[in-house]
Amino acid sequence: MNFIGAYSLTNLKFILQGFLITLEVAFVSIIFSFILGTVLGTIRYTRFPALAKVTAIIIDTIRNLPLLLIIFFIKIALPQLGINMTAFWATATGLTIFEGAMIAEIVRSGLNSIDKGQIEASRSSGLSYMQTLRHIVMPQALRRMSPPLVSQFISLLKDTSLAIIISLPELMHNVQILSGHQFDYAIPALLLAAALYFIVNYMLSLIARRLEARTY
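^ thats the sequence. predicted structure below, dont judge the formating
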């Protein structure tokens, strides 16, 4: 193990550049997966049986596929149909689709957790179904959904490492290159990668615990 060589300024910069890309992919994917998951979860919750059933089939299908397969399909198969994406956007799209399906179930469960009596009271006071959903149900559900949502975002951040399969220059990709260049850099580089993942995910877990404490 060569910690001094592995942690040279050049190598640290290389690893941190990969980590920055990891964070960028995670940030983009979190935003879009939350939007997609909220839309899909709300559709499953609403009173449109046919649309809700179709949405449920789509969600269940995606949730039962490996994320690696989805990313690989987007990067390798879609170009044959004329749809080309960079490694960055192929990863972000795959994560958005997969995590969006996971978040959809969190959203649906959160909406279902709201007491039906509140909905009936809101409707009887003159609010439409969509107004009740927007102003009464959704705000309360979001508070209850916050802890599991943050936990899902932690999983999303860790799943960015799967992008190594399509050569996205994220953290694990750069660690692999560094380890391949100099074998005795492997353990120091992996330990640094583990520390970086741990710091960010631990901060997110603290946020999840605080949100859970406020919820209950």
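Residues 9-45 form the longest helix (37 residues).
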